[in-house]
């Protein structure tokens, strides 16, 4: 596992660009070396979404049942945990070259 490399120039795709792409609804990203555009396919979108939702759901249930926390603190803890998951995802997500974009 690791951050994906560009298929054209073998430069690693930018971690921040991948995180930004996730937060902005899986926007396409460009290689900073050669400018090739990468998109995330439909199947990977589902895997990514479920790898964020299921742990958040389980963490929320565990947090609710084991501790008596205020609603604001619980929302903050869930947001923090969700952010942590998002920051780890670029090491597992795989993008593919955009078939509609002329390279």
UniProtKB/TrEMBL annotation:
Q: Is Transmembrane one of the keywords UniProt gives this record?
A: yes
Q: Which domain of life is it from?
A: Bacteria
List UniProt keywords, sorted A-Z. Answer: Membrane, Transmembrane, Transmembrane helix
Membrane-spanning residues: 50-67, 73-93
Q: Which NCBIfam families match?
A: cxxc_20_cxxc
The protein's name? CXXC-20-CXXC protein
Source organism per UniProt: Ureibacillus acetophenoni
